Amino acid sequence: MQKHIDNYDFAGKKAIVRVDFNVPLNEKFEITDDTRIRAAMPTLKKVLAGGGSLIIMSHLGRPKGVDAKFSLKHIVDHVSKCLGVPVAFAADCQKADAEVAALKPGQALLLENLRFYAEEEGKPRGLAEDASDEEKKAAKAAVKESQKEFVKKLASYADCYINDAFGTAHRAHASTALIAKYFPDDKMFGYLMEGEIKAIDNVLKNAQRPLTAIIGGSKVSSKLAVLENLVGKVDNLIIGGGMGYTFIKAQGGKIGESLHEDDLIPAALEILAKAKERGVNLSLSVETVCGQEFSNDTPRQIAPTNNIPDGWEGMDAGPKSIENWKKIILASKTILWNGPVGVFELPNFAKGTLQIAEFLAEATKNGAYTLVGGGDSVAAVTQMGYADKVSYVSTGGGAMLEAIEGKELPGIAAIRE
Ligand code: AMP
Fold it and tell me: How far is CA 182 from the centre of its chain?
């Protein structure tokens, strides 16, 4: 049965904690953004304060095997600094018995990158490009078989398991899901995971209405399942950014050279029909800031989104769209935002996205619950200095997307089972 970190007695116990320390490093292997490390601190400190010891495990990057570039040794000093105790390092996550045995209450050990082993993800590596289906199947079966031993070894280090890695909660990997079964009565979420789950529930399960979702970003194809799930749940669905032009074209609009996916026009029409059927207010951009080419200094003009001149492409939401969306946002009690409403990376086309961040901060101040997830929307609220002026900023891009698709994430299910 699942336990709660607040009530668990860590005294004298060893806790193996899956965190997401997949932080960006520069060429000198210095951490350029330690948000993910700081986000795990409440959980890690709780174990130490309770008299337990820590075995911390994570992946870093996408190594294809042992690769010093992706070694977690680069971050040990910083983790020690954040945690306030020296952190030992085990250079092989499968051969850490001695280091684990030496751990005393209040001490911490970081295991080397789990993904140095193919067994972490359970996917075969090094298959020849021309491998036959038979060979692929055999390689997969082999890694699944050796994965059992890999998981067992990790589990053998500890008395209890904590999953605090929301960023990988959508993966059924050894350390994020499979390990949980070795701790039937000693498994729990960390505080970060718990916060993320609560934030998602606040929007998808217990929302105060009106509930509004603002979905932006480049392509319909990457967020189709999100739109399909949300259109069955929300009161207002704002669709902005590059993906909006497929909807405008589907309705017969002229979108110039704007990004769009013709093969997704039927899917867009279905979403429009479902919104109508359910009485959902699906709000598309009515006015667009267009550029002549995809660059910051390209000439700009404002055009109706359904009548963009040839040779121009829609790159940001125009003032009338922003005005419409502002009204919807400020009248909402719960708001979910994922994805920019323009080409946020180019400062001349970032204004719409930054204004959305501003409206979310205002709505939060007025009592709305606001959840921001996804790289660029998180960057927008951070850039505006609003990260603490919205209710919750998610740390997991892919995991958040799958959660708002309505899927049960394997990392969450494994603890609850
Ligand atoms: P996503 O990862 O799907 O959330 O998409 C984020 C990307 O969408 C960013 O890189 C934006 O530049 C891009 N994007 C947003 N609006 C547009 C647009 N109108 N045209 C092209 N790309 C866009």
Answer: 26
Per-residue pLDDT averaged across 90-103, rounded? 98
Catalytic residue chosen out of the listed positions 3, 14, 18, 36:
36
Catalytic residue list contains 36: yes
Structural domain spans, the chain: 14-189, 197-404
| pLDDT for residue 283 | 98
CA of 216 relative to ligand 1 center, distance in Å: 7
H or E element, residue 204: helix 191-204
Sheet strands side by side (includes 287-291) = 300-304, 287-291, 313-317
Q: Is pLDDT of 286 > 80? A: yes
pLDDT above 90 (res 375): no
Contact by Cβ (8 Å): 405, 229: yes
| Domain 197-404 listed as CATH 1.20.1540.10 | no
Tell me which architecture the domain covering 14-189 has in CATH.
3-Layer(aba) Sandwich (3.40)
Asked if the model's pLDDT at residue 376 lies above 90, the reply is no
d(CA 173, CA 332): 38
Token pair for residue 320?
Answer: 């009338």
Burial tier of 129 (Cβ tally within 10 Å: 0-12, 13-18, 19+): exposed
* pLDDT recorded at residue 218: 94
CA of 217 to the centre of ligand 1 (A): 4
| pLDDT score at 383 | 86
